[in-house]
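Session log. Operator J.P. requested a structure for one protein chain; no other inputs attached. Running the standard single-chain path with token output.
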Amino acid sequence: MLHPEIESLDRDAIKALQAQKLTALGDRLAASPDWCEHFAGAGMQPRDLAAADGLAGAPTMEKSDLRARYPFPMLTVDTTRVARFFATSGTTGLPVMFGFTDNDLHRLLAVQVARQLYCIGVRPGDRTYQGYGYGLWIGGPAHDLGLEELGATCFPVGPGRSELVVQWLRDQAWEVATASPLFLAHLVRVAGDNGIDPKKDWKLRIAVIGGQGVSRAFREHLEAEMPAGFRAFGSYGTTESGGPNIGISCPFSHDRDEMHLISEDTVITEILDPDTLEPVAPGEVGEIVVTTLDKEASPVVRWRTRDLVQLSEKPYDCECGRHGMPTIGRIIGRSDDMLKVRGVIVYPSQIEDVIAGTPGTVKEAWQIYVDTVDGSPHSMSVAIECEAGYNGDPPDLADIVARSLSSRLGLKVPVECHRQGTLPRYEAKAKRVLLKEQS
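Structure written below.
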């Protein structure tokens, strides 16, 4: 553990620390007219967070709450104190800006990411390919900060430049990668096209994969393409929570396809029923809702991520000893990505499970096409790619996937199979579901 004084606390001690910080957060927010107005909508004031049930009664937040206060929503410091702004993806509507003070960056985010990296086995001096994006997206800069805090050696390439990266991975013996799982899978293919065998020519032993949820089958396929002993550890975070700072797999939870909520001393993560907003029980699925405790600029209280996850059956029993930091499963999908087709609920992650587990498919390349009537899903089909070296016929591969989908979903889904390289590739978050309105 990088911070044993925090990571080894039991759950009661973590909750006591959270209560102290909630009181301080309420005092800070009470000085903000925007925040006072937000709480007043629920008949509360920010300082009510100090009560035992203060957080449970506080109003939730969504993008509409922030866009209503454009351009710098809920900013709690003067813009002159903001060292840097980051933004949400903005896939629908204007991106939302979030400010970070120097303290937010170097004494909060850097420490949060360094803790995650250490948890999965990154150590000072490890040569690290940093493959997350830069610009207004927080992924790349956050990992730069965490690697610097930890003392690892960073090669900040970002996504792209694939033919150079696969060569540098060989020639410069990089040991760690931080990248989208889809882009890492893409690099494996580029390596093969350039006569490089990742299993023999690369020295990678660890990857931090995030920015896009993937199935266990996809992760295991990716690990099998790498040097012996390589592990791809899942991570999770959001711009709103302050960066890639919420969840990370430890070596034990990785084997169960789970993650620790490893920043519970600085970010409260609730797993709530998306309809009732009540906490879910172990083993149940809920929405991730976050509250930032220590962030100076642009904090959030009960931010609804719309990301759905299963709370572990035994969330406080991990063998690593982080008993105060519960475990959750991988991200199942988003509540707003859930499809209900002919009465059957479908998540894109279920489609990926089938494709990733079918030999001959290109694991990172697939799409869901949904025909809608009056905005509601009416029918769906799936497009896949066939590996260039596949010995069978593409229509037969499509039939295999279609039968597996029917068995998994209880729904007949037409599947079309394309040659490798036909479907879109994504460096970060993939847009898997494409909607089409029927006339």
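Operator note: Residues 11-29 form the longest helix (19 residues).
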